[in-house]
Specification:
alpha/beta; OB fold (Dihydrolipoamide Acetyltransferase, E2P); 31% strand; single chain; five-stranded antiparallel sheet; five-stranded parallel sheet; Rossmann fold
Length: 245
């Protein structure tokens, strides 16, 4: 079972080190990296993140301030060059506290601690949701989407991509264009994450409907869709899992 993680640090070299470390651990899926806490807000609000590597001291909006705004934070591993934040880390109930420069073995110790807690919590949740394996239904292949005065049946296999348009989402299928007031977070909770992935703040695509990828652009039928830097790592990880690159 993989953990989705995000790293936030205003030091580019520190970000690259965490990315390098995370790539060596098979149960870590690094979704994105950000060089400021403010830049991460939308991503954290709209995506399921299990673990956050968070620098404490950053300009404009610190890691501590970000934590204090989160209603349901993921597991947190703080990263900092200063040791006097240890008490604050304890108060915020973070899982671990890493001092820079971070040695790889110390990084591994921290993520092992998080992973143990993650598996324990996942097992507890599965017992609540599905007490018997045979009672778990097969994944549904369609959903109903509210569109204006209609409620439309949408088959997942027919979806090409979903585009954000201000207050609406446009769901583009093989035959229709469906406008809905639902948001990306709700839609992503319905879709299979191995088949659909967010590639831009305004786009989510069906991986099996991609005609080709050129540089940072995806072609699906007559639509050219950009892949933004914030979502590129998660997209590349999914393609690797599917042996597409």
């Amino acid at each position: 079972m993989k953990m989705n993680c995000v790293a936030i640090d205003d030091e580019i070299l520190a970000l690259k080190k965490i990315q390098r470390y995370a790539e060596k651990i098979d149960y870590l899926n690094l979704l994105a990296t950000f060089d400021s806490a403010l830049a991460s807000l939308t991503f954290l609000r709209e995506n399921k993140v299990d673990l956050l590597f968070l620098d404490i001291q950053m300009d404009e909006f610190t890691g501590i301030q970000l934590l204090e705004t989160m209603k349901d934070p993921p597991y947190i591993v703080l990263t900092t060059a200063y040791d006097h934040y240890a008490l604050k880390a304890y108060e915020l109930d973070v899982v671990d506290y890493l001092l820079k420069p971070i040695p790889f073995e110390r990084f591994v110790k921290a993520v092992e601690k998080v992973y143990a807690r993650f598996l324990k919590d996942a097992a507890h949740q599965s017992r609540i949701v599905a007490p018997a394996a045979e009672t778990v239904p097969a994944r549904q292949e369609y959903t109903f989407i509210k569109s204006g005065s209609k409620t439309v049946k949408v088959y997942f296999s027919k979806i090409l991509y979903i585009e954000g348009m201000r207050d609406y989402l446009l769901i583009r299928t093989e035959t229709d264009k469906i406008m809905t007031l639902q948001n990306f977070k709700t839609i992503q909770g319905i879709l299979d994450p191995t088949r659909f992935i967010r590639v831009h703040k305004s786009y989510l695509v069906a991986v099996d409907k991609i005609d080709y990828i050129e540089n940072n652009t995806i072609k699906i039928r007559d639509k050219l869709i950009p892949v933004s830097s914030s979502y590129r790592i998660a997209f590349q990880n999914l393609l690797n899992q599917k042996n597409m690159i």
